[in-house]
Each structure stands twice: as C-alpha cells, then as structure tokens.
C-alpha cells in the first residue's frame, strides 16, 4: 500500500527498531500480521538478555514493551488496567511494567536545562544535587534549594524524547487503522479509543506546564483544608520541559517502620486519603489518576500529600451519578440495577442479555454477605464485562484503576480497611445533593430548557406540514439498502430476455425465409446474428 510505504519512509528507522525488538523477543506474530518483518534489517538487532524461549507470550510482550521505551510502556500500563479487555494472564504480567530506567548523565541534561532556565542552575538555585532523586522513561527529578531558602524538586524531560514519541504515535496510529480494517474481530478492544487515550496522556506528560496546571486544579479543591497538601508551583522557572515545585517531606504509606516511629495514626490517615480521593472523583469530577504509594506521602499531624499530576482523570456529572448508582446496586445486592448500569455504560454493544443477567446475579452472589474488598470487587466487575464482550468507557476505566490503586494503598495503612464503609459519608453527601430540592430543580431546569427549545420550534413545524399537505407536496423518502444492486440485476435480466427474444425470433421466423431465397449472404448474416446473440447471453450470465 502506498500509505504504508509513506509511513515506513517517514519513520523507517524507528519502524525498523520496533520490528527488530519484537522479533528479538519472539513476538513474531505481530510483526508478520502487520507486514513489517522486512524493515527489521534497518536497525541493529538487539539480543535479549534472557532466554525468550523459556518465557510465556505475555512475558515476551512485556519484556519487548520495556525495551521499546516510554510510548509502549505507557500503552502497556493502560492495558494492564483493563481487565474488561484482557485476561488475568495478560493484565498481571503487564502490571509488572515499570518506567524506571537508567538515568541520563548530568552532562547530557545540563545543556537543555540551562537553555530552558535561561541561566546556569547555579545562578538560580542556591543548591542543586546533580544526582537524580528518580529517573523515569519520561523525565528525571532533582532536588534543589532556591536562593530564598525554599526546598524544591526540579523535574526535567529527557532530551530528544518528543521526536521518538511522536514517531511512535504516528506508527501506532497507522497500525491501528490497519488492524481495524483487516481484523474486525479486534473491534471490542476499542483500538481507536486506546490510541486517543495513549496520545492524550503522552502529549500531556510531554508538556510540564500541563502537569503544573493539573497540580493547581487539584490544589484549588483542597484550598480550605490543611490536612491535604499539594505542592506549590514556582511558575517563574516552569516551562514545557522544566517543572519546579515545592519539595514535600513525607513517608510512603507502605513504610510501616517510619510511620510507627513518627506516631502516625494509620487508620485515620486511611480514612482521610479515601475521603480526599472520593471528594475529587465524586464531588469535583477531577481526580489523581495514579495514587500509588510513590505519589502519596504521609506527613506529620496525620496529613496527606499528593504529588505527580502528569495525568488526572475527569468525570462528567452523568458519569458520577452512574457511579453512585453502581455503588448503590452493589451495596443493595441488586443484580438488575447492576445490569442496568453496565448496559448504560456500554450502550453501543449488543450483548446476550440472558447471559448478562446470569453473570450479574452470579457477581452479586459471590460478594453477598462478605466484607467487600473494593479492589477485588472492581476487578471482578470488569472481568464480568469482558466475559460478556462489553468494554468500559475510557474515563471509567481510568477511575477504576485509581480506585483499585487507592484501595491497595489504604490497605497498607489499615489491613482491615473497608472502602465502602469509608466512602459512606461522601456518597451520602453526594446523593443528598443529587436529590435535594436544589439538585432536582437544576435537573428540571436543564430538562425544561431542552424541552422549551424543541417546543418553540413545534408550531412552525406543524404549520409547514399543514401547508404542504394542502398543496399535495408532502413526500416520503424510503431508503432500501441494496436497491441499486437490485435495480442493476433487474436491468441485466431484462437485457437478457430482450436479446433472447430477438435471437429466438430470428431463428424461428427470419432464418427459414432467408434460406428459401437461396442467398448465401442472408444465411451468413443470420448465423452471425445468432452467434453474437448467444455469446452476449453467455457473457451477461457470467456478470451477475
């Protein structure tokens, strides 16, 4: 295909690297199905450091993804959070993906940092530790101190990263189009939706100004609370490739020795963390999309600090209402309510309703009368969706991943933690506002505005219809799929009948008369007409 050739020419070196890595790790089926095996010679073959013949297919794919870099790591992490799309064998392996990589040397980072700051780091910072605190596939983080004495962290994008990621996204977008066209059975994996999610997340992380804005959005939610801490952004030094923000002193929630030594009330902190996350998601509709132990810090006074806002999730008011209904259906053990919410979320699908009804009831039976582990519950819920060929909307999949992660963190703090119980006050508050007089009046106003818009056009439409009825100008258009094909078939059949009649008439009536005249020319003409007519009929028959 010309289009494929163009894509390969534009990013042929990167395409060759991708093909070589996949072949090296034994992921040859993907390479063969996409038809890119021939470009592997464009890149230096990488020899895996493990014997891939001893690895399962998910293990090979995970190792290959790590070797391919940040774009593919991010895609793998997205898929790891989708038990509604992949089986446990795949999600459990992809969950092992990590973006921690060998740090780039300070000599390679410094020129870019100086260009972005407009000065040498020593001119801006009183102290700057050139050994990174952390090194990920997207950025490296350093600890520093401003001239004013404030402790800060300096996040710097890895040099040359944008060019590689943009090439990867172009190639993946092209591969997605091929997959959709050639293998419709992959449609349930929502390849276009996954690509939009991937591209949006990566472009967001490539612009550290976006992360700074996300941080301030979350900070505004907790502006009146001193027990939830969000780092301050130093905008004068922040740009697309550099982020300077307040350094937060805290203890990871899974470091029990330090938590106990600091006299932290872990049960209280777990409740506060849950309240903060649910307040973000259910009340404000904006939440931290990856609240793992590295992004949550426990601080003195049982306070909680959130860091790293490269990606945040957003939920519409409608989605938040649906989530409340889901939680309500689970708490009431209402299988019909559970099924209704699931169908509402995946309305474009056409599932087997009898099977889905049985699955919903089985789900309720599995979890009825037991202490609810919210992480296990949501994972089981998404597995039920996959088994019924349903896929969750992306925004909900992000939220569920966040909830499962937060539930795991809170259980580190309090092994007896029950997220449903902890969520009670927030859920009740949200339900109360949803169904209060003010909340209902807002919905009525919204519905009324829509009805008023439609009603205001109704008299004009009725008047126009009456006028056209009087004039006899009302027409009805009926579209029958395949009518063009049917019309062509009728036309061909009519042509065959007409030719057959002419040939038959000539053979039975005209030919004997020509023969009686004894003129060889008439006999020859008659034979030619019959042969041409019969040949035409044969051709028409073959071109049905």
Automatic annotation (TrEMBL):
<dbReference type="InterPro" id="IPR011009">
    <property type="entry name" value="Kinase-like_dom_sf"/>
</dbReference>
<dbReference type="GO" id="GO:0016301">
    <property type="term" value="F:kinase activity"/>
</dbReference>
<keyword id="KW-0418">Kinase</keyword>
<dbReference type="Pfam" id="PF03109">
    <property type="entry name" value="ABC1"/>
</dbReference>
<dbReference type="InterPro" id="IPR004147">
    <property type="entry name" value="ABC1_dom"/>
</dbReference>
<feature type="transmembrane region" description="Helical">
    <location>
        <begin position="517"/>
        <end position="540"/>
    </location>
</feature>
<keyword id="KW-0812">Transmembrane</keyword>
<keyword id="KW-0808">Transferase</keyword>
<keyword id="KW-1133">Transmembrane helix</keyword>
<comment type="similarity">
    <text>Belongs to the protein kinase superfamily. ADCK protein kinase family.</text>
</comment>
<protein>
    <submittedName>
        <fullName>ABC1 kinase family protein</fullName>
    </submittedName>
</protein>
<dbReference type="InterPro" id="IPR050154">
    <property type="entry name" value="UbiB_kinase"/>
</dbReference>
<keyword id="KW-0472">Membrane</keyword>
<feature type="domain" description="ABC1 atypical kinase-like">
    <location>
        <begin position="96"/>
        <end position="340"/>
    </location>
</feature>
